[in-house]
Amino acid sequence: MAVKVLIRRKVTSENEQELSGLLRELRTLTTNRKGYISGETFTRFDKPGESLVVSTWQSADDWREWVLSPERKKLQDKIDGLLGEQTSYEIFSYS
Fold this sequence. Notes:
The protein is of the alpha+beta class. It is built from 3 helices and 4 strands, in the order E-H-E-E-H-H-E.
């Protein structure tokens, strides 16, 4: 069953460019993963620096494999270090 993953991040204005580069790299790696369907990135209209990624996967297992992969973990550690906090994830299934 397909799942949607909501990924929330907050970044300061001085780190936006560096974060953007890391997220592009992450997106490139993601698109080649088994089970990846699509992804959309949104920025908060009323709160600069806040973003939401909606990622669609064929299954929660496909998402978990990606989250636990060494290549993703390496990039995610850089992203979280830049943000100064851990990225927030929420996983939803279709009902």
